[in-house]
Amino acid sequence: MSLFSRCRGAALSALLLFGLTGSLQAAEPIKVKVFVGSMFEIGKNTGDRAGEFQHWYERYWQTAEPITVKGALNPVYCNADGVCGSVLGMGKVSSSASMQAILLNPQLDLSQAYFLVTGVAGTPPARGTIGEVNWATWVVDYDLGHRWAPEEGKPGEPTFMPRKGYEAVRLFPMNPALVSWAMRLTADTPLKDSDSARAYRKRYPQEAAQRAPFVGTGTHMTGDTFFHGPGMSAQAQYIAKLYGADDYVITEMEAAAITLVIKRLQGSDRVMSLRGAVNFDQGNPNETTLQHLDPKPGETAGGFAETVENVELVGSRMVDHIVGHWDQWKDGVPALPAQ
């Protein structure tokens, strides 16, 4: 081999090595400060009727390029400030599968991230109202036990018994310091309301049901079943109290499963569950549960558009505070300042 050929080969090798090194440097993972997970979007991410993700997308990721993650239902979007988000899918299996794929993806460094699980939900009329936004103090799995028909047990007794062996995967306390921060930063958020939601609330005699939208806290009950009726609502409250959690105020389908995935991979101290109520978990005194499940045209609860906006209005205050004060938050939830 001639000297020229050896030199040319060495030069090509150096260029290839430089190119490879440059590629590795360019592929350094994105440092995520806050990850926002929604469960569904109705259509596009912007420009049409908003589902759970659209207001978040329009606030943080209008110019972001989608990041494809193998195993996740939808792409992840990130902005220059380290705020990332995605539509994870509805139900425990789909949402948690997406979350695990995202956590394990080498393009993203979520080791210091705060996780905000967001979406719409139901609420019992004795404790919540249409349009409210609620931070979880506890997340509880509605399943993982035994159930039977009421007529097959003793009259008036519970029809659910928890199954042993699931103690570590059915009950998740949210970090109380994080919840306190959330309420400190968001409790006074001005919330949207609508004439249709106001009219719908009047069908219910409960004082809580007739309230205007507010920001509150309580237990979020995760179940794949859209349970309805006063009996199922009472059972959800029974489970919450049986496990030592706060009053049940939100019914949803994903938070317990997502929290479990995050907890196993890096702990759950930085997980938040935020939900907006778009329906009551039971009918009013003048309708049966089946009538409530299958309402006549024009008889559905109003306020969906306002509620999905409310969730983002509340949640973004928390996101922006964490990102804006990252030096105080990166190593863990800081102590609350004195009142």
Structural class: alpha/beta
Helix content: 25-40%
Low-confidence stretches: 1-25
Number of domains: 1
Largest sheet: 9 strands, mixed
Q: Judging by the overall fold, what is the CATH architecture?
A: 3-Layer(aba) Sandwich
Output the CATH class name: Alpha Beta
Produce a short descriptive summary:
The chain has ten helices and 13 strands. The chain has helices at residues 3-26, 54-60, 92-104, 176-186, 195-201, 230-242, 255-266, 289-293, 304-324, 326-329, and strands spanning 30-31, 34-38, 77-78, 83-87, 108-109, 114-123, 133-141, 145-147, 160-162, 171-173, 215-222, 248-252, 271-280. The strands form three sheets. Strands 2, 3, 4, 6, 7, 10, 11, 12 and 13 form a nine-stranded mixed β-sheet that branches.
Describe the structure.
InterPro entries: Nucleoside_phosphorylase_sf (IPR035994), Pur_nuclsid_perm (IPR009486). Keywords: Plasmid, Signal. One of its GO terms (molecular function) is catalytic activity. This is Purine nucleoside permease. Residues 1-26 form the signal peptide. The chain has 339 residues and is α/β, with parallel strands linked by helices. It has a single domain, classed as Rossmann fold (3-Layer(aba) Sandwich), CATH 3.40.50.1580. Helices cover 35% and strands 20% of the residues. It has 10 helices and 13 strands. It has helices at 3-26, 54-60, 92-104, 176-186, 195-201, 230-242, 255-266, 289-293, 304-324, 326-329; strands at 30-31, 34-38, 77-78, 83-87, 108-109, 114-123, 133-141, 145-147, 160-162, 171-173, 215-222, 248-252, 271-280. Strands 2, 3, 4, 6, 7, 10, 11, 12 and 13 form a 9-stranded mixed β-sheet that branches. Strands 1-5 form a two-stranded parallel ribbon. Strand 3 and strand 4 (83-87) form a beta hairpin. Helix 4 (176-186) crosses helix 9. The longest helix is centred in the N-terminal third of the chain and has 24 residues, at 3-26.
